[in-house]
Amino acid sequence: MKIGVLGTGEVGQALARKLASDGHDVLMGARSATNEKAQAFARDTGNKAGAFADAIRHGEWLFVCVDGAHTIETLRSAGPDALDGKIVIDISNLPVPDPSDKGSLGLTVQRTFPNARVVKTLNCVSAELMTDPARLPGNHTVFVSSDDAEAKAAVVDLLAGFGWKSIVDLGGIASARGPEHFVALWVEIYGALGITDFNFAFLRGQG
């Protein structure tokens, strides 16, 4: 499958390298087509590098791994219709979430690009855990939100392939606000413990 990864940081690198190792045709996008981190990814994996617009045009699926403050402008870089019909997996977060709907990047992305198939997931775990949940013992949880049931099911299959066993469907894309706000707690725990290898298990009661 052709996949565009938008972003060259830890999250983008972890996902792009995992997807490349699984045999996907990956193009890592950056602000500049000559970005050294993207070029190094291409050299190391035999895949491709380019600008954000190149990655958007390349991918049937897109992984948004940029600073949340730049998510919308990044997705606009290839033109107004470039996302139509594509599965857009939004992993980005705002530094300080707004309690209103405007504070949900997943919902904002879907409203801004109504013909994209937006799925919010993986935004409240570290880059290392995203593609290797077995780093932690036991079943810990990742969440998914989307208005597109078919796209969400496809992303759930991908997550299961990464090794995720506890995948909780929160519902439509409006529910993305929950895990996006949850990141504030994640940051506080990281600051207190100084580690990124942690996550939460979702335990269901009998009632």
User: What strand line-up does the widest sheet have?
Assistant: 3-2-1-4-5-6-7-8
User: Count the strands?
Assistant: 8
Query: Spans with pLDDT under 50 lasting ≥5 residues?
Result: none
Structural class of the secondary structure composition? Answer: alpha/beta
Distance between the termini: 42 Å
Provide mean pLDDT, rounded. Answer: 94
How large is the radius of gyration?
A: 16 Å
Element-by-element helix/strand order: EHEHEHEHEHEHEHEH
What does it look like?
It is a single chain. This protein has 207 residues and is α/β, with parallel strands linked by helices. 38% of the residues lie in helices and 19% in strands. The protein contains eight helices and eight strands, in the order βαβαβαβαβαβαβαβα. It has an eight-stranded mixed beta sheet, sandwiched between helices.
What are the SSEs and their pairings?
Blueprint: E1 2-6, H1 10-21, E2 25-30, H2 36-45, E3 48-51, H3 52-58, E4 61-64, H4 71-75, E5 87-90, H5 105-112, E6 117-121, H6 127-131, E7 141-145, H7 149-162, E8 166-171, H8 177-193
Parallel strand pairs: 1-2, 1-4, 2-3, 4-5, 5-6, 7-8
Antiparallel strand pairs: 6-7
